[in-house]
Amino acid sequence: MPPILETRQLHHLYSAGTPFAHAALRGVDFAAQAGEYLAIIGRTGSGKSTLIQHLNGLLKPTSGQVLFDGEDIWESKQRTRAVRFQVGLVFQYPEYQLFEETVYRDIAFGPKNMGLDEGEVDRRVRQAARFVGLDEPVLDKSPFDLSGGQKRRVAIAGVIAMEPQVLILDEPTAGLDPAGSAQILDNIRTYHREKGATVILVSHSMEEVAREAGRLVVISQGCIPFSGPPAQVFARGEQLEALGLGVPAMTRVFARLRAMGLDVPAGVYTVAQARDAVLAVLARKEGSPWP
Amino acid sequence: MALKDITLGQFFPGSSPIHRLDPRAKLIGLVLYIVALFLAGRWVSYLVVFLALALVVALSTVRLRALVRGMKPVLFLLAFTAVLNLFYTPGRPLVSFWIFTITDEGVVRSILMVARILMLISCTFLLTYTTSPLALTDGLESLLSPLKRVRLPVHELSMIMSIALRFVPTLIEETDKIMSAQRARGADFDSGGLVRKAKALIPLLVPLFISAFRRADELATAMECRCYHGGEGRTRLHQLRFGPGDGLFMAAALSLAVGVGVLAHFGW
What we know:
The structure holds two protein chains of two kinds.
Chain A: E1 5-14, E2 22-32, E3 37-41, H1 48-55, E4 63-68, E5 71-72, H2 77-86, E6 87-90, H3 103-113, H4 118-131, H5 148-160, E7 166-170, H6 178-195, E8 198-203, H7 206-212, E9 215-218, E10 227-228, H8 230-234, H9 237-242, H10 249-259, H11 271-284
Chain B: H1 17-20, H2 23-39, H3 43-60, H4 64-71, H5 75-87, E1 93-97, E2 100-103, H6 104-130, H7 133-144, H8 154-184, H9 194-200, H10 202-225, H11 244-265
Antiparallel strand pairs in B: 1-2
Helix pairs in contact in B: 2-6, 2-7, 2-11, 3-6, 3-11, 4-6, 5-6, 7-8, 8-10
């Protein structure tokens, strides 16, 4: 099956023709399969934000192509606009884009722009609000009276209400407390599962992407040096560190255990996997109290 | 066009002789140049002011493309001026149709007027291209400081100006970001009539204002935390000092203004 979203030899140059010209992307070949949950990881300034803004046609490639469902998204003006509804993009700190008088109307902004009728807009707003865990009474409040975490959920609901096939989120948990982060990641997982949507998560928290994503795409200096399942990517710990990225704490612990001569697997990156690996080692030991 | 490409008041860092001039010298030079521009009468004096501008542009290493790009917003004004002067100047008629008459004097006047506006814009752009906003406000504050005697809050005004200038790129970036975010939700800022376009700005302006107020609040707190209390007794990290080059520059600007005045007086 062809990928739902693909870039071919994507280049992007900012401020071309001025002393500030700066190449943000240099020949990126990126692909996302329908229904997958992938994460883009890279340090600040690696080009990840530039890449995702190409995926829904907000930025025009300096050269190269962006394909949605196998067709160029820049084919016509209508197509670019249509793709924006199919590829929902949640920016960093999305709560700063709220502008309407009520939460309901803010969430309805996207669906209304799609030209849907009143009833469909209403259904989508309520469903999106449910996805992000907002209660009915909140819908009539002013978004500016909400807490930071709630505001962010309203903003995410505003994109989810367009029911995009691909949902891209740029650092959705930045600046939230652990409980708030967990809740938002949970909301995203629900959307992914129930709608069968493709989710692209941009993050620099290795723990977060390790837990959430099925595939990791590493981006550095406008290129993709490697990508793959978390276990594979995190097994290249030294390379990641050379790129200015870390590995999850568990991966680090297990790398040390292996260095100390213990027979544990290399691709451990979550606490659950670590527990299983440790239990397996203990079980192999005679006289262990563990089953 | 991305908002980033707006050049109004943008600074191009460099180390040309013009970049290195004292901002006060550049401001005084600019005023004198504008005086010369408005004194200029006919072809000869226009040629002189043009050559002076060309020399400064060449020295500044600012690229012509950047200067030309700055002209775009005033194209309408230019066309308007040209047409007005072309049709409404009395003189010897060259062409005449319906109620319009083009005179020889009209042609000359519209060319000179357009040239004057172009040079006026170029020289002010040249100042902002070669002078960092901070240097510029420092220069203004220093030049205006005699007005403190008449109780004009010069320091406060220049601080307001520095802060405003400082936040222009920030706000542009913010506008860009909010615009992208609303575009991602299907907002359309480019099509439709005037009313629709104005309405389309609400999703942009509301968040922008909110964030501007938030920033202002944060900045005020940050300044207070660092014990800012106005201009009294404040010293500077970068002291402005006139050098020989600055004297030369201002002398050249003064002689230009006087010279052009004399030329114009004799009808050149």
